[in-house]
Design a protein that fits this description.
globular; 3 strands
Length: about 80
């Protein structure tokens, strides 16, 4: 089961400010949020953990961008399984 985290918890796990977090999304260094409806969004906890693990391991920005692309692709494959 995937756990979704709202922005404050996500920022708590990444240690980044709100503006730095959204800048990372624009730069492909963080996955975009999942729309929960209305104006609510959240991030899958496992994606945040995967990105943090890559950062701790000293991965380059290009390697993290590749990871983010893979995580986004995995979201799409989850939809196909559920359909």
């Amino acid at each position: 089961m995937k756990k979704l985290l709202r922005l404050p918890k996500t920022l708590g796990l990444t240690g980044k400010s709100r503006s730095a977090h959204y800048e990372d999304i624009q730069n492909g260094l963080m996955t975009p949020p999942v729309n929960l409806g209305g104006r609510s969004v959240a991030w899958p906890e496992d994606e945040i953990i995967a990105i943090n693990t890559a950062l701790i391991a000293g991965k380059t920005k290009d390697e993290i961008k590749a990871l983010v692309k893979k995580l986004i692709a995995n979201r799409k494959s989850l939809c196909e399984v559920a359909a």
